[in-house]
Design goal:
Length: 366
């Protein structure tokens, strides 16, 4: 939004968004928390409200008749809105910022998206090839927003053994993963009683995390959001739940072990996942260097054994991850250092020239 306004100061925004977007001038149709639901059971519990918000959003877009509709992530919400808008306003271009994981889950979505998405702005370098292979819409790699924060994530000199633990950003993840990670820390402390352990936490999750930490063998340092990136740069190693934090850690040069667990019913869906890895840096680098443990494989013993060599300043697994991080960084920078400006240029191109640009060439930022 900042890049769009810089390129076109008179631009007006309308839609649905959170606090950061409100700070850029968006008056949200309703609070983003109304649709911020993860997991099968929570979605089913709030289904009537979610359906109402989908219909409300589509009606608002149709009434506004925008020059361009940009749908952002959350495909179960945004794609339903987009389909309704396409039927009512077939001439309005629709740009999807953040590709659905069609390369890992429900690949048939890519071809279906052609009916209501004109262009996908991809955050990951391998996604344009995936959409082309799956018959999806035009897809352009614009770069990951984290690229714009590389200076904050440059590796720094490591201190004494310092383990960073990241149980997740959602309440369900924190409640499920924190006790497991406590058992891992207990094993490591038997060999390294001086091990420094820290956990970054968002203010609205602190109460949930403190409750989940009961029974831990040590009280870890809780880090504010301002302390998070400096800690990523200084940590000797990290124990992380799969998510965008793994990409942040890789850019900061922090070797890691990754785990993930879901509820029993959700775990049955994993057999439909086609991705070779659940770890973003592994996917981007095209190699499975970071150890990952899913469901029953994520045991205290397995995680502790994988972490031990990473806590050593000189070890082969540590060196292998650091080399993979360098290759991943090079691929991530393939679209340049200004992904927001590149994304804004493409959106403005569609807003100005309309649809029918599948074979065209979008403007690049100056």
């Amino acid at each position: 939004m900042r890049a769009l306004r810089k390129a076109r100061p008179s631009l007006q925004f309308a839609g649905v968004g959170g606090e950061a977007m409100a700070g850029e001038g968006l008056s949200s149709l309703f609070p983003l928390t109304d649709i911020a639901v993860m997991g099968l059971a929570p979605v089913l519990a709030r289904l009537p409200k979610l359906v109402a918000r989908i219909n409300e959003t589509a009606r608002a877009v149709i009434a506004a008749k925008p020059d361009c509709l940009v749908i952002i992530d959350s495909p179960d919400f945004t794609h339903r809105v987009a389909r309704k808008v396409r039927r009512a306003l077939p001439d309005v271009p629709i740009v999807d910022y953040v590709s659905p994981t069609v390369w890992a889950w429900r690949p048939g979505r890519a071809r279906r998206m052609r009916a209501y998405v004109d262009c996908v702005l991809a955050l990951l370098p391998f996604e344009p090839e995936a959409h082309e292979r799956l018959g999806g819409p035009r897809c352009v790699y614009v770069g990951h927003p984290l690229v714009e924060r590389l200076d904050d994530l440059r590796p720094a000199p490591r201190r004494r053994p310092f383990l960073l633990v990241l149980p997740g950003s959602r309440r369900t993840e924190i409640r499920r993963m924190t006790p497991l990670y406590g058992a891992v820390v207990a094993r490591l402390l038997r060999e390294r009683p001086d091990l420094d352990v820290a956990i970054p936490v968002a203010p609205h999750m602190e109460a949930t995390l403190r409750a989940a930490l009961k029974g831990w063998p040590v009280a870890p340092r809780l880090l504010s959001q301002a302390e998070k990136f400096p800690a990523f740069r200084q940590a000797r190693a990290a124990l992380a739940t799969s998510g965008v934090a793994t990409l942040e850690l890789a850019l900061a040069g922090a070797p890691m072990v990754v785990a993930y667990k879901v509820s029993g019913p959700e775990s049955l869906l994993r057999f439909m996942v086609r991705a070779p890895s659940i770890v973003l840096p592994n996917l981007i680098a095209g190699e499975k260097t970071i150890p990952e443990f899913i469901q029953e494989a994520a045991t205290p013993q397995a995680l502790a054994e994988a972490l031990r060599p990473l806590l050593e300043e000189k070890s082969a697994p540590r060196a292998a991850q650091l080399a993979a991080f360098a290759r991943m960084r090079a691929r991530l920078l393939g679209a340049g250092r200004h992904p927001s400006a590149r994304a804004a240029a493409i959106v403005l191109d569609y807003a100005t020239k309309g649809r029918g640009r599948e074979n065209g060439r979008s403007l690049d930022p100056a």
